[in-house]
Fold:
Amino acid sequence: MERQQQQAQQQMSSSAPLEQSQLQISHQTAEVNQNLVSEVDDILAEIDGLLEENAEDFVKGFVQKGGE
Amino acid sequence: MERRIFGVETEFGIRYIPRGLGPLAPEEAARKLFKPVVDSWRSTNIFLPNGGRLYLDVGSHPEYATAETATLRDLLAHDKAGEYLFNDLVNQAQDNLEAEGFDGRIFLFKNNVDSAGNSFGSHENYMLERKVEFSRLVRSLIPFLITRQIMVGAGKTHPSGPPEWSGRPLGPQNEPSFSFSQRADHIWEGSSTATTRARPLINTRDEPHADASLYRRLHVINGDSNMSQATTMLKVGATDLVLRMLEDYYPLADFEIRDAATALRVISHDLTGSARFSLADGSERSAVEMQRHYHAAACQYVEAKGPHHEDVPYILNLWDRALTAIETGDSSGIDTEIDWAIKKKLLDAYISRGASGYDDPKIQQLDLAYHDIDPDRGIYNVLNRKGLIKTVISESEIDRAAIEPPATRARIRGSFISAARAAGEPFTVDWVHLKLNSRPQLSVMCKDPFAVENAEVASLIEELQQKKSTVWAPPFI
Structure:
């Protein structure tokens, strides 16, 4: 319980979550072997090839009417 | 209740991105999408041979309602079959557009919000015994539905940080952020009496499509649309367990929440799961505390009663791992199964390789493209193909569900539809009724959703099968 409250306070008082997750990511990538890193790089490169060129238009141009 | 009927209704977002010739508004793109349906069925609101329903409201979203299913695995297969069916329509529309000189691409997104803040839904239906009083739903089910987003949300980036809500900051202002849920920011109501407070999240007044003296149809509207089968299984499977406990009068805490709309938002924007919000009795709780209570109760309940289907142990295990991931801030134990964690892992990988943060246009694009239903281009589907997603059911089960009805009343409906179309006989069906238009006085009513056969319909089908059609029946869609 105390620990959870501390977490909540950290969350409110700083930009901790994003920094933490970035730290975790770099920590993880430091530990894994180079094959896995290049595997991830390959997947991201493949995804890059599938995305529409204009990222901003892809997101901003998606406008619907509300549902239900 | 030994067996339960489940169904999911999904509204899809639609977008046409032009190349060469100009744009098409969503309404026009949706009309193009439904052209084969209209050509074949003369309607944009049809029941299919698999028992499900395809629907297009004027100017609104393409929608797929699964047939009524009686097992979670059938529900998963039929939910995914909706994506397959719509993808087939996209391909046909794409061909028609090319023939007309349009060179762009149609996208269908299984998500819940557009860039202007319009929200569209994923609605779950659960058959519920009528004896469960509404007050117990308010005390124990609604708090579960409000807090379950930490396990089963689809994840969402917020380039300008969490929106403000009633003057209360939901997180650091203007700092790009990631939330558990897509839908939580779009459920508005939170008024004074329990009944009206409950109404926006659940609705039990709808027609039950069954014997109304025994059953209600619980209609849940606050869930995110999920891409991951495991997430859908946890969402529906855990909700089913809570409903079973309520039906069996198993003791669950009174967690009636004072302000549902505020709690939904506070929870969605707090990735630690520990932010506190007020209950009706004046105390405060966090989402993780409440979900730990539901999970522990469900484990004890299952230990006492035994698992009621093959996937109960997996559901309880994934539920626990999702809560542990949030408690420890390490989602590596769920990042092939839970949508928000799968998505966050991908976005964080891009950020660690140079994307500026959750406000980077590329990150925004990936957040949306994750929900693209296209099997080759949609990012969830790419990750699945690369073996980075755990699936529960096979491709062939999904293929079959696009055509064959599940073993419920849907089988009666689906067989009737198939026979009538093969005979070239016009017909009218809804969830409960079936009739041939040539014999309007003979309308068959099937009130039992578990029934897989009906003598009256069987004899109608026999008649239809004897009548050889002289009319060529086009493909179903």
